[in-house]
TrEMBL record:
<dbReference type="InterPro" id="IPR002331">
    <property type="entry name" value="Lipase_panc"/>
</dbReference>
<dbReference type="InterPro" id="IPR016272">
    <property type="entry name" value="Lipase_LIPH"/>
</dbReference>
<dbReference type="InterPro" id="IPR029058">
    <property type="entry name" value="AB_hydrolase_fold"/>
</dbReference>
<feature type="domain" description="Lipase">
    <location>
        <begin position="41"/>
        <end position="362"/>
    </location>
</feature>
<dbReference type="InterPro" id="IPR000734">
    <property type="entry name" value="TAG_lipase"/>
</dbReference>
<dbReference type="Pfam" id="PF00151">
    <property type="entry name" value="Lipase"/>
</dbReference>
<dbReference type="InterPro" id="IPR033906">
    <property type="entry name" value="Lipase_N"/>
</dbReference>
<keyword id="KW-1015">Disulfide bond</keyword>
<dbReference type="InterPro" id="IPR013818">
    <property type="entry name" value="Lipase"/>
</dbReference>
<keyword id="KW-0964">Secreted</keyword>
<comment type="similarity">
    <text>Belongs to the AB hydrolase superfamily. Lipase family.</text>
</comment>
<protein>
    <recommendedName>
        <fullName>Lipase domain-containing protein</fullName>
    </recommendedName>
</protein>
Length: 529
């Protein structure tokens, strides 16, 4: 739960930041009457003119012109398998450098952009570039880093304006590559952008269509920034018209005053919401995220809030060569997903792996006429809190026996832990069906989604343990003469990734006794109708 005081402090801090921005001399000040002369458009040579009129004023507390290219010092380092460590430095307006770069026309071609307060030298960009270049079949790949560190500094409103020009410059670079290599289209181009970099990718895609009648093959938005982009028209933010395929990973999508930095709106062809899309396991929260604001408020706030926001690019990098399928399923909401309402892949609940390999699955659906490219698919999944993040997901249905012995025993309070075992006797880590103690009574049936590290094969049996603690204030937990136990009739274990289902039961219908591991197998189950 988020602390209300924490939220108030966060909101107050954001207001201070906005106030700081509004004090700048470059901020748009709208005329008090129609006779007052105000500059609403500024031009930058070959990159064209940029307006500060509507819709660039919508839902924004301030409005800037982009800084000139020479101020932002924009570079485009290009990496291939031949030069992973020392890139060829390209520039948007220097076509001859591209001609001399010895790029392989077979591709594929990737562009990676950082966000606010960052630069192209960040370790996550190098990790992602290495993973892309190392991928089987990518011997001819080129990775371009969009390094706009000179324009990504505070105030935030200025960085927001700068990405409009940087996106246009990236479009010119892509067009030069297209013409120099004699390519027929941009289907082999994939722009990957984090935070503000995601919207920068959208501007690049839009400019390519408007200026050169070319359309990017794909844009991946990694937790696209929310401030200044929420509830704006599609021209202002990344949307699915900016490329032939747009996929989004939301990892910090919640209100800004609660510490959210990512947009919550579904804006792509496919939007992934891992763990609900707002907070991620392994990212610790604080009761007072802005308790000590020192010289650089921006740096401190972003550092505190960064874990959830950054997890999107960590997921994507891992998805390039994942340890398991990284599967996500279409569902009405994360709550419905957790309740196992969408635990199988079918015509109403499409399954698409999150991240790099999603386009291949989406294309199959598209070719089969199963998806409308003008609409959105929202998908949900669960991950781990540490690397590797990929998990295998199961819908586990628990039935408490209604037998005479179970009724005589009565209800009990505790938690149920499950370990899954595959055909090679490999075991998963134990997983609790509920985070807190639960009241179980004879006849109860519940289904939960759980995620565990995969063993490589679906389970064939399970070890179940009853976690029980006596509570002096709860008579239901008092067991004076014998150990606490629970009569489990069966567990149904359905795999999302393996598309398998088994039912396991305790031997001879015996109860699961507190703190004693009980083996459950399909052969122990009675034949059921």
């Amino acid at each position: 739960m988020y602390n209300r005081t924490s939220a108030t402090l966060m909101l107050q801090t954001i207001m201070v930041l906005m106030d700081k921005q509004n004090s700048s001399m470059d901020v748009t000040r709208f005329p008090t009457n129609f006779n007052e002369d105000v500059e609403l458009e500024r031009c930058y040579g070959m990159y064209g003119c940029f307006s500060k009129a509507y819709p660039w004023t919508e839902n924004r507390p301030d409005n800037y012109f982009p800084e000139p290219p020479e101020v932002m010092h924009i570079k485009f380092p290009a990496f291939t398998r031949r030069n992973r460590k020392i890139p060829v430095i390209l520039e948007a307006d220097k076509k001859e450098k591209i001609e001399n770069a010895n790029l392989d026309p077979r591709g594929p071609f990737y562009l990676i952009s950082h966000g606010f307060l960052e630069g192209g030298d960040k370790q996550w960009i190098q990790n992602m570039a290495d993973a892309l270049l190392s991928l089987e079949g990518n011997e001819a790949a080129t990775v371009f880093v969009v390094d706009w560190r000179g324009g990504s500094q505070p105030p935030y409103g200025q960085a927001v304006a700068n990405i409009r020009l940087v996106g246009d410059m990236a479009a010119h670079l892509v067009h030069h590559v297209y013409t120099v290599l004699g390519l027929s289209d941009l289907d082999n181009f994939h722009f990957i952008g984090h935070s503000l970099g995601a919207h920068l990718a959208g501007y690049c895609g839009h400019a390519l269509q408007k200026k050169f009648n070319l359309k990017l093959g794909r844009i991946t938005g990694l937790d696209p920034a929310a401030p200044y982009f929420t509830k704006t028209v599609t021209l202002v933010r990344l949307d699915r018209s900016d490329a032939k395929y747009v996929d989004i990973i939301h990892s910090n999508a919640m209100p800004l005053y609660f510490g959210g930095l990512g947009i919550s709106e579904p804006i792509g062809h496919v939007d992934f919401f891992p763990n609900g899309g707002s907070t991620q396991p392994g990212c610790k929260s604080s009761n007072n995220p802005v308790a000590a604001i020192a010289d650089d408020m921006y740096q401190r706030i972003v550092k505190h809030l960064g874990c959830n926001h950054e997890r999107s690019y960590e997921y994507f990098t891992e998805s390039i060569a994942p340890s398991c399928p990284f599967m996500a399923v279409q569902c009405e909401s994360y709550e419905a997903f957790l309740a196992s309402n969408c635990s199988s892949c079918d015509s109403k609940h499409f399954c698409i792996p999150m991240g790099y390999h999603s386009y291949r699955f989406y294309k199959r659906l598209q070719m089969g006429g199963l998806v409308d490219t003008n609409s959105n698919i929202a998908l949900y999944s669960m991950t781990g809190g540490s690397k590797p993040y990929c998990r295998v997901q199961y819908a586990i249905t628990l039935k408490i026996s209604n037998s005479t012995a179970s009724v005589a025993h009565g209800p009990d309070v505790g938690r149920i832990s499950v370990i899954l075992i595959d055909r090679n006797t490999n075991r998963t880590e134990h997983k609790l069906l509920d985070d807190e103690d639960k009241y179980y009574k004879p006849g109860d049936v519940e289904t939960r989604m759980v995620a565990v590290q995969g063993t490589g094969f679906p389970p064939i049996s399970a070890i179940v343990e009853w976690k029980y603690e006596t509570n002096l204030f709860n008579p239901v937990t008092w067991r004076l003469l014998k150990s606490s136990s629970i009569f489990i009739e069966y567990l149904k274990i359905a795999s999302l990734e393996y598309n398998t289902e088994i039912t396991v039961c305790p031997k001879l219908h015996k109860p699961v006794v507190a703190n004693l591991k009980t083996m459950m197998m399909p052969k122990y189950c009675k034949i059921r109708k």
